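ingest -> fold -> write
write: protein_1
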Amino acid sequence: MAYTSLNSFIDQLEKEGELIRIKEFVNPHLEITEITDRFSKQGDGGKALLFENTGTSFPLLINAFGSSRRMNLALGVHDLNDIGKRIEGLLMEVTSPKTSFMDKLKLLPTLKNISNFMPRKRKGKGRSQEVIMDSADMSKLPVLTCWPSDGGPFVTLPMVITKDPDNNIRNVGMYRMQVFDKNLAGMHWHKHKVGARHFEEYKKLKKKMPVAVALGGDPALTYAATAPLPDNIDEFLMAGFLRSKPVDMVKAVSQDIDVPADADIIIEGYIDPEEDFIWEGPFGDHTGFYSLADWYPKFHITAISHRKDAVYPATIVGIPPMEDAWIAKATERIFLSPIKFAFLPEIIDIDMPAEGVAHNLVIVKIKKSYPGQAIKAAHALWGAGQMMFTKVMIVVDEHFNAIHNYKELVKHLVDNTNPATDFIFSKGPLDILDHSASKQSFGSKLAIDATSKFPEEYDEEKDKERRSEFNQTAIDELVKDVPAIKKVNADLLSTRSLLLAFGIDKNKMPVAGIVEEIKKQDFSTSNGVIILFDEIVDISNHHIMSWLLLGNIDPYRDIFPEEYGRKGMVVVDATMKNNDKDNFKRDWPNIIAMEKEVIEDIDEKWEKLDLGAYIESPSRDFMNYLRGKGAVARD
C-alpha cells in the first residue's frame, strides 16, 4: 500500500481509531514532549497525536509509528514478518541455480518486478515543491525542543539525503539536526554512518557537499531511512519495495541533488568540509540518557519547500519504551529472514527488547548442531552491519521456546549458564551514544552461551551440580555487615531464578569492597547473580532495572565472576559511574526527565486539551534519578 502524503496516512490512522487531534495550542518547547511521553509509555503505545495548533502554519504529527498496529498500517501489512519473507523469496529466486535457458527466462519477471521498485526521476516540480519559502527560515517550522537540558530545538525525524561524489550513489539516513538559526543547523552523523563517509569524500575533494532533508510523505520512506541496509543499497529502493510502488524523485530547487516528489517538506542546503564544526547538543537520546555535546558539521540551509497541506512529522526519544522501540521491532521482524538466508541459516528467531535500546541487547535463537555454534553465531552477528554495536548477545537453542518472555529467559540464564564457561568477552566498536564504555565508541562485549551443551563443551571442574536456592541467613548477614547495602530485592527469587538486586551507597563503600564482602558469604549456591544498583533506583521495577543494567555496564569491567569455592557466582556493577569512586574519566550523562513546572502545566491543561482519560507523567518516577541539573550528572 502506498500513501500519497502524510495526510493520507493520518486519514487512515483516524479511520482506524489510532489518532487523537489536539486543537488547542500546545508549545513545541517541551509541552508536546511531555504529552507525547505520557502516551508513548502506555503498554500498547497509546495513540498517534496530531497537534493542529503549534504556533506555526504547520500541524505536527507524532507517535505515528508508536505501536505494533500503527507500524503495520504504516507499511501496509498485517504482519511485519511477511515483509522479511517477501525479501527472502526474492533472494531465493535470484540466487537459485539456473540449469537451463528456460530457467533463466523464468527469472525475467522477477527482475522486472525488482526494477519496478527503483526510484524514478520525474521532470518538473513535485508536490513537495508546491510552496517555496521566499527565504529559508527554520523558525517557521514547529521544531521541537524535546527535553529540559537539550541544546536547543531539534529536527527529529529527518530523511537526510546525500550522495557519493565519485559515483553519485545515494544514501538516506536519519541524523538529528539541531537548529541554531533560521538557516543554520548541525548535522549529527556518527563516524560509522554513510553520510559521514560521503562527507569525508567531499573533504578530500575540497568541495561543498549538497544535502537535502525530506520530512513526511509516505511513512515507508521514513522507515526506510532507519533501516540497516547494506552499503550502496538505496533506501528509496527499499521504500519502493515496501510500498510496492517506486518513489518519484525530482531535482531540488537550490542544490544538485534529487528529493522525493511527494514528501511534505524539503529542506535543502550544503555542508562546507573546510569550515569549522559547530558545538552541537546535548540531546535527550534514545538510550534514556542525554547524549553530550560535541563537534559536528554545519548545515547551511539554502531553501525550504513544502506541500500546500504539509504536516510536520516528529518523534521524541528517551527512557524506553517510546516510539523508536516499535520502529526497532519492525526492523527485527523485517530483517530476520534476510539474515537467516544471507549468512546465518541456523537462526530461528531474534528479539531486541525495548530495554536494550536497540544496541545493548540482542537475544538469538538458533538450531544447534555442533559444539561452539552459539559463539560462532554471536561473532557472525557482531560482524553484520549495525549489529556490530550490540553490547550483549544471548544465544539460546531450539529447546528454549520463550525468547520473547523475559522472565522465563532470566530464569533460563541463571539456572542454565555458568559464567566460568558460558560468558565469552570480546572487544569492538560500540555505538557513539554508549555512555558506559571507558572510551567513546569502543569497549567490551559479552556473548552468553545459553544453549544446551554438547559433551565437548562440558567442563567437569567448572560445571559442578548447581544448588537450588540462596541462603537467606547469608543474605541477612551480608546486609548487617555491609552498611553500604541499603536495600535488597529478594522478590526476584520469586521468578524461580537465583537472582538478587542490591541498592548500594558507594559513599559508604566502593563497589570493589562490596564485591569482596559478598565473596566472604556462603550463599549455599554455586550459580547465582547479584546486581548492584545505586540506592536511588527502584529495584522492584524489573523494566527499570533491565534498562539501567544494560545501559550502565561495560561487560568486562563491570562483571565480577566469583570462583572462591562457589563456581559461577557473579556480581554485576550496574551503578552510574564517576571519576571519584570508579576512576571513570568521561562525563556521565544524566537520565532524561521533564521539568516539574512543565508537568504541572500539562496536568492543569489536560482536560481542556481533550486528551481523554488522564495519564500520569512518567517523569515523576525519574526525577529522583537525576544527579544535579543539566545534561551531565553531578554528585
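write: protein_2
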Amino acid sequence: MDLERELAGIMAPERVLSRWIDRIAYANDASVYRLVPRVVVQPESIGEVQALFRVSRAHRVPLTFRAAGTSLSGQGVTDGILAVVSRHWRRLEVLEEGRKVHFQPGVIGGAVNRHLREYGAKIGPDPASIDACMMGGILANNSSGMCCGVLLNAYHTLDSISFVLPDGLAIDTAQPGAAAKLEREAPRLAAGLLDLKARIEANDALRERIRSKYEMKNTMGYSLNAFLDYSEPLDILAHLLIGSEGTLGFIAEAVLETVPDYPLKYTGLLFFTDVPRACAAIAALRDSGARALELMDRASLRSIEEQPDVPARIRELPPSAAALLVEYQCRTEEELEQHASACRELLPSLPLMEQPSFTRDLVEQAALWRVRKGLIPSVGAMRRRGTSCIIEDVAFPVERLASGVADLQGLLAEFSYDDAIVFGHAKDGNLHFVLNQAFRNARDADRFDAFMRALADLVATRYGGALKAEHGTGRNMAPFVATEWGADAHRIMRDLKRLIDPDGLLNPGVILNEDPRAHVADLKSLPTVESEVDHCIECGFCERVCPSRDLTLTPRQRIVVRREIARLRALRPDAPRLAELERDFAYDGVETCAADGLCAVPCPVGIDTGALVKLLRRRSRSDASQEIARLVARRLALAESAARMSLRLGRLLRRDLPPAARPTVPATARAGAKAVYLPSCVSRVVGPDERRDRSVIELMVAVSARAGLPLWIPEDSGGHCCGLAFSSKGFHRASAACVNRTVEALWAWSDGGALPIVLDSSPCAHTLKRSGTELLPQNRERIARMRILDSIEFAHDEVLPRCAPRPVGGRVVLHPTCSVRKMNLTGKLLRVAEACAAAAEIPASAGCCGFAGDRGYSHPELTEAAMREEAAEIAASAPDGCYSTSRTCEIGLTRATGRPFRHLWSLLDEATRERHGSAGPGPRAERSPPEAAARSSPRC
C-alpha cells in the first residue's frame, strides 16, 4: 500500500492502476509467459520516469517499461512495477522532407510509415507486426523484418536518441554537449564503457566473433558491435540501448534516418520439389536484385491451402515441396524493367517445378503476400484448445540454410510437434517456426525444455547461427546466451548490465538470467473460454483499432480477463478476487465495448471480440426481456413512430439529441426502378441536424434519379430492419426475428433477387451481408442470391459512371465506419469523395468513433476516448466539410469534433447539381433548400 501511495504522489492517481482487473489485463504479452504486476502505472513525462526509478530503488521492486506488448519472447511482463507508455508517448514528427523521423515510444510503427508515405520514405525496420508494434519495442528489440536485412535496422539507421538511465540521468544525444554531460554526470559509467571496449579489442577471438555474428541477423544478447563500431562513450551507450529490451534504460524519444519506400513491385511465387532446391536458388535471386525472398516449407503451405484466394496449385504440391515468394522493389519503371528482365533470364536456370508467373497487379500481389502472412494465424487458429502458439526465429548461415531447415524440421518431428511449420526470410538465412504447446503440467514443461536445449545445440553450436534473429532474446532464450556467445562475451554482457543497472531492478531476467530453466518458468496456461475467442493467441494486434483502448480494456485484455475468470471459477468459485473481477468486468469489459467487430480485421486469427461481448450481454438478458424485445421487433413500425415522438419530446429537454425524421418518405415507383432502396431504421427515425438539410433518403432518391437509376422504396418498407440494434444489446431473438422478416421482404421486393438492393447505412449493409448465422435455411439461400449494395458501392459502381460530378470547392475529410473497413470499401469511399470535392482525405488516426449506435449517449466517455486523436487531427486540418455513411456515427463524430458530419450522399448531391452562389462544402454553404434543389439543372 505504501508503494501505491508513493506512486500516486508522483503522477495522477488515475494513472496508478492497482485493481486486480488492471493487473491481470497487463499480466500477459504475446509470449508464453505470465507475470502479474504489483501495480501498473502510466507515466507521461521524463520527470515521472525518473521518479519511477527512484521508487523502484527505494522499495527494491523491479521496474519494466512496456509499449504495445507484442513481444514474443516475454520482454513485456513483470511481477513488479509495469510502466505502460502506449497512452502518453505518441508524438511524431517528420523531419527534413522525410529524410528523418522523430518519434516517441508509444507510436505504432505503421503510423510512422503512413506519415512518411507522401515523402516516398519509410523506416528501415519492417517487422510483420509493424501495424501493431510500437516504436519503443522496435528499438528495444532492434526489430528487422522481410526486407530490412542486417543494414537497415534501428541500430544502423539511428540518428539520435533520448533516454533515461536507472540512476535517473536523462540525456538527448541530439543536444549540444550531450557527450560532455555523460562524462561529467556519470564519469564511472563513461569510463566503464571504455574499459569494456578495451577488453573486447584486446581479445582477438572475441573481436572477430562479434564481427562475424553481426554479419547475419542476430538479436541474441546485447549489441556488442557498438563497442567496435564507436569510440565515444555516448555513441556506444546510445547503440547499446538498441536491442537492450528495456534492461539498460528507458527510451523516451528517437530519430531514425529513413529509407526509400519503393512504389513499384514485381512479385511471383516459385515452387520447388524440395527445400534444398529452393535454398539453392536464393543466392542467384538475391544477386538479381530481389529485395524479398520468403521461404515456405510444405507444412506451411498445407496450413493455408484451403483458405480463400490461395492459388489452387498449392493443394496439388507433393509432400516435400517448398516455395519462395520473390519480390523486386524499385523506384522507376526503367529500374523495374531491368530487374524483371534479369529475373526472366535467370528463371530457366533454376530448378523450378514449373514456370512461375510474376505480377505487377496490386490486388494479385496482395493475394500472394496473404499466402505468406497467413501462416502464423493459420497455425494459431488450428491449435488445440488449451495450447499456446509459440513463434520462434533463428538464423543459419545462408550457405547452410538448406541443411539447417532439414535439421530443424527433423528436430520438430523428434519432439512430436506435428503441426509445426517452418518459413522465413531466406535472403538472410532467417527462419521462423510456429508450434503449439500445452503447459498443463511439469511433463509439458520438461518437453519444451528438452526441445529448447536441443534447438540451442543445433543452431548455436552445430551451425554457428543465431538463436534469435529478430524477435529479441527475452526470457525464453536468456539461459542460452552463454551457449551462443561463449564465456568471454557473456561476461562482458553481465558486466555491462551491472555497470548501468547495478541494482538489477530494470526488467530483470530478460536477456541475462542465471536460472538455467528460466525459459520454462512463469509459463501461462490458457483456460478454455467461449468459443468466440478461445483461439486468441494474445498477440495484441487488435489493440490499435479498439475504441476503448485508452479508456478501459482492449480486445486482448478482455480475453485475458475472461481466461482469468475461467481459471478462478475452476479453482475456487467463491474466491473474493473472482467476484471482484466479474464486478469490474461488467463495466470495463462489457459496457464500454463498442462491439464493432473491427478487432477481427487486424487479428491474425480473425477473432471478433465484439461477438463475445454480445454473447455476454445476451446471457445477462432475462427470458422476459428477450421476449419483450422480440415483440417490439415484430411491431417495429409502431416502435419507430414512438421513437420519433420520443425524439421530439426529448429535444425539449436535451438539445444534444438529434431531430426526428419526417414520418413519410419520398414517393417512388416500382415501374422502371433500377434498384430496391431500403432506408435504414435509423434514417426513418432520426432526421438531419438542420431543418434546411435534406435527409439521406431524399438525397439518395434525388441523386439516383439524376443518374438515370430510379430507386424504389417499397410502401411497406417501414418496420423492416437488419436487427443490429437488437443484437448489439444482446437481444438475439429480436435480432433473428428482424433479419428473417427483412430478408423475406427483400426477396419479394427484388423479384427473387432480380433487382439489386441498396442501403444507406453501412452498418446495416454489413449486418445484412453477414447475417447467415441468424437466418433460417430458406433465407440463407435467398440472401446468397440477392445483390445487396452499401450506398458507397452504389455510388461508386453505378452512379459515378453515369455522372459528370463537378467537384465542389474546398477539402473534405472522410470517416470510414467500422463496417466500411470490414467490407473493404474504404478505397471506394475515398474515390467517390475525390470525384466530388477538390480534395479528400481520411485522417491517419481514423478508427471506430465509439458511438456504437446509441452507446455514445449512455457512455459518452467511450466516444470521447475513441475520438481523441482523430478529433485533434481534424481540428488541425480544418476541413471544409466532413462526411461518413452512418447516421449514428455522424452524430458521434459531430459531438466529438464539433464539426458537422453529413452523409457521403450529401456531397454527391452537391457535385451532381448546379449550385448558385455556393463557395464549397462548408457549414454555411452545405445545402440549398429542397425547393432550390428541385429548380436546379441536372449534372447527370
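write: annotation protein_2
Residues 797-935 form one domain.
The first strand starts at residue 16 and ends at 17.
pipeline exit 0
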